[in-house]
Amino acid sequence: xxxxxxxxxxxxxxxxxxxxxxxxxxxxxxxxxxxxxxxxxxxxxxxxxxxxxxxxxxxxxxxxxxxxxxxxxxxxxxxxxxxxxxxxxxxxxxxxxxxxxxxxxxxxxxxxxxxxxxxxxxxxxxxxxxxxxxxxxxxxxxxxxxxxxxxxxxxxxxxxxxxxxxxxxxxxxxxxxxxxxxxxxxxxxxxxxxxxxxxx
Length: 200
Prior knowledge:
Blueprint: H1 2-43, E1 79-81, E2 86-89, E3 107-108, E4 119-120, H2 123-130, H3 136-149, H4 151-154, H5 160-168, E5 175-176, E6 180-181, E7 188-189
Antiparallel strand pairs: 1-2, 2-3, 4-7, 5-6
């Protein structure tokens, strides 16, 4: 009788543990499936004619507007690019965040170190070159094509300057084999095509 009681207790305890584990597994799986379906629904473009409402607004008269504060590329050790397209040395940055246009190092819309395909050796030159008003059609073509594949990444972009900052950052298109640059001399790109593949 004592042995039977112990056996029933053990089976009962095991049954309860198994039952609770099964319930936990099923609820976790169902919740994960619901999240996956919700995320997939958010990413789908419901209509083939539907265009993502890009927030980017191009202002062709960028340099003529009155500006009291500038955003800039911040990260450069020696060079910076402000939102007006000026590249300057860090020492020539004004307190309002704009480059001092009277400094000898300041140049607007400079494409120094940039190749014809829109890939540059220096990040700040890439951003400045990308900000040129004549690059608007190129960037709009990119946005229209990227609408489906990169919608989450580029819908957060609010204007031309932010688009150029994001576009010039290195991406998976700049690397080969996940660990080396396709072209180490031109890894920052605003153009439509990735850097040319150089032999290793």
